[in-house]
Amino acid sequence: MREDYQEAVLATAELIPPGKVLAYGDIAEILGFGGPRQVGAVLARCGSSVPWWRVLRASGEPPACHGHRAWEHYSAEHTPVRGTPAADGTGYRVRIAEARWQPSAADWSVLDDLRRRLTVPAPAVDPEDGEDQEAGATAMANQAMSVRRGEVEA
What we know:
The protein has helices at about 5-15, 25-30, 35-45, 65-75, 95-100, 105-120, 135-150; strands at about 20-25, 55, 80-85, 90-95. It is mainly alpha-helical. A hairpin with an 8-residue loop joins strand 3 and strand 4. The radius of gyration is 17 Å and the shape is globular.
């Protein structure tokens, strides 16, 4: 999976404020790339550093196998839910219609920037010397990391 896509998914998850959520498909739609499964794969692989509980199934079900941990976060953040967790962590859902995050104008600016970066093709390789255009690739990676860390220039 493309590293820039992973960074964009993680940066988007980090933008979601406490008490709000997005479905996996919402993130894919916002970014204009991939689908719910790709977003879920990114979060399963490397989402522990972001608020993963704020990204869930369109039905409002918490992330698989993490129902109890997610419940703790939803309770602390006052996320609207229906039901209570059963022994296996299932049995409740986030009321996604009430909790769905609506990005602000500033958030859309960051999201638009993430989308633009995803449309940039991978660095070209010079067929004569086999070297990639490293400067452009490095600059793009640094920008993605800056967005993810919240170091966005106004």
